[in-house]
Amino acid sequence: MNFNVILFVISSLSIALSARLENLYVAPHAAAYSGASTGFEPAHQQIPILRYSSDNTEDGNYRYAYETGNGISVQENGHVSGSVPEGPAVVADGGYSYTGSDGQTYSISYTADENGFRPVGAHIPTPPPIPEAIARSLAENAKSGDDGDDGQYRPSVGNRY
Length: 161
Hints:
The chain is built from 3 helices and 7 strands; from the N terminus they run H-E-H-E-E-E-E-E-E-H. The longest helix has 16 residues, at about 5-20. It has a 7-stranded antiparallel sheet, with no helix packed on it. It has helices at about 5-20, 30-35, 130-145, and strands at about 25, 45-55, 60-70, 75-80, 90-100, 105-115, 115-120. By secondary structure, the chain is of the alpha+beta class. Strand 4 (about 75-80) and strand 5 (about 90-100) form a beta hairpin. It has one domain (about 5-140). Keywords: Cuticle, Signal. Pfam families: Chitin_bind_4. This is Endocuticle structural glycoprotein ABD-4-like. One of its GO terms (cellular component) is chitin-based extracellular matrix. One of its GO terms (molecular function) is structural constituent of chitin-based larval cuticle.
C-alpha cells in the first residue's frame, strides 16, 4: 500500500474518532433571518438539551421526545398503519410547546394520518360557525342521499369548451 494512502486513512480515522457531539443547541438570532436590525445584537446563546429519548423498532414504530433549556418541549409517537389504500403509512401523534416572545407558553398537540395533519391548540384560530341557512341546506342534501353527481366528468354535447 502506498504511504500517502495509509497516511490519509489514519488521519481521516483520527479526525472522525475525535469528533464530539455537543449536547447543546445554538439558537439563531431572528434578526439575522429577517434582515432587520434591532440595534442590539447579542452573541449566540447556547441552549442546553435537558432531556432526549428516541426509540425505533424494526416494525416501523417509533417514539421520541426532547426538552431544551429555553422551554421547548417536543414528543411524538408513530406507528405503521395498513389502512391506507396505497399501502402502509405512518400514523403519528404528538405535541410541542414553547415560550413565545411575549412570555406565554404555547402548546400544540397533533395527529397526522390518512386524514392529514390536524393540530389543536388554544391559540390556533378556528373558522367561524357555518351559517344556519347553509347548515339546513347541507342537512337536506344529506337526507336525499342522491345528489345526482357521481364525481365523473361528462362534457355536454353542445359544449364546445
